[in-house]
Amino acid sequence: MIFIKVPPQPSKDLITGNHQTAIRYALLLESVNINANIFTKDIPYEKLEEFKGGIILHAKKNHSVAVECQKKGIPYLLVLTGTDIYYDINDNKTSASQKCIESITGAKLIIVLQENAKKKLLKKIPNLETKIIVIYQSTNINLKKHNYFEIKKNFSVIMVGNVRKEKDTLTGIKGFMKAYKNLLNIVEFDIKLIHIGLELDKRYSFLVKKYADNFKHIEFLGMRDNIQTINLINKSDLFLNTSIIEGGCLALKEAIDLRIPSLVSDIDCHKSMLGDKYPGYYRVKSVHHLAVQLEDFISNKIIRKVWTDSIRDSPLAEYTSREEKKLLQHAINFLDK
After folding, report:
1. pLDDT of 206-250, one tens digit each?
2. Cα angle vertex 88, ends 86, 90, to 5°?
3. Superfamily for 154-312?
């Protein structure tokens, strides 16, 4: 029996990426007869000794659990988040950085969710080379794959992610509105943007909603469960992800597996998942470049086909839960070393 510790959920209705990862890991391990208990709240430290080891998600937020495991001699694997890798570890002068380093130092193995995250981490801590494993996220999607279209009457763009600054939702809203206005006299079909996710940052969410106020072609659906989200992605014509940082992006993997062409920011995570030559990147934080790319995709059927073909040929197009399970099993073996 092992434990899986995720940071406390900000809301009972909110399912974060960390929580999704924990649930998927528990199911994958169960399939190979390894039982895992997921803890979303604080673990009573005396209970830690009941487990042979654990998986800790988020180096900073679960620092106290990592330290307690080190004191009690309980082995653990550490899954690093985008915040850990791209923000906290980079500033040596902060307590956040110190907490991350302490959590990393005591771990049997470090898990990152994409190859570029490993490269980024090794630039900062070169001696971790033999202690890091890359385990991309997988899905179990069995729906019919998306078909490339030439003629349409309606066009749907979908964004998936809880609203906060790191997701840069506002750039997505601004870019879509700019592209829509520029396309009014070019295309004859209706265009809409659907957003799925909760308001994780209330102040930032207010700015996003205020900017989009009364624009009837943008719809905020709030939280949807995983099955509903996958079905909505599958009904869409374009997946849009505007994140500034990502440790891993399960929603993008879902779009890849559904063969939905994607317009994404040119950050490490997206490039690791789609490849450097994928045509559907825009410069991170650039409203103008996002709008230009969106306009080109909607108005040009050749570009639509190129993007669709590129998704089909992306590095993770054939990556399945079987590969993720195999890598996770390998990682779990480090708890016994």
Report:
1. 999 999 988 999 999 999 988 999 999 999 999 999 999 999 999
2. 65
3. Glycogen Phosphorylase B; (3.40.50.2000)
